[in-house]
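User: Predict the structure for this protein chain, please.
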Amino acid sequence: MKEENAAELEKGKTFIIVEIIEYIPNSVVIKTIIKKTTGNVTVSSFDSGEALTEKTSPFDTFIQVIDGRAEIVIDGQSHQLDTGQSIIIPAHSRNSIKANVRFKMISTIIKSGYEEVTI
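Assistant: Here is the predicted structure, written as structure tokens:
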């Protein structure tokens, strides 16, 4: 997995979200759009055959596929998302993200309402 920079994108400047991240062979690339203590927005590209290992988050996570097709597995149930489709991964659910074909996605986590939880 390759994390591009942890800095946010320049504010007040237009961009095309699907173009700010490239596919890299045999890699998952993650680029930060916004990073705050109350949540973050990232864009990721997954090459075919790549995956993120199963994890659990204390927060809901909104996933939107912006190119290709993703497999999102939540508590053992597989969901196939095509370009333009979204899903919310519930807090405290086991989940993994797989690329049977390459894809790009936006991930949004909002921590508001969970002030008693620390990371």
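The chain is about 0% helix and 50% strand.
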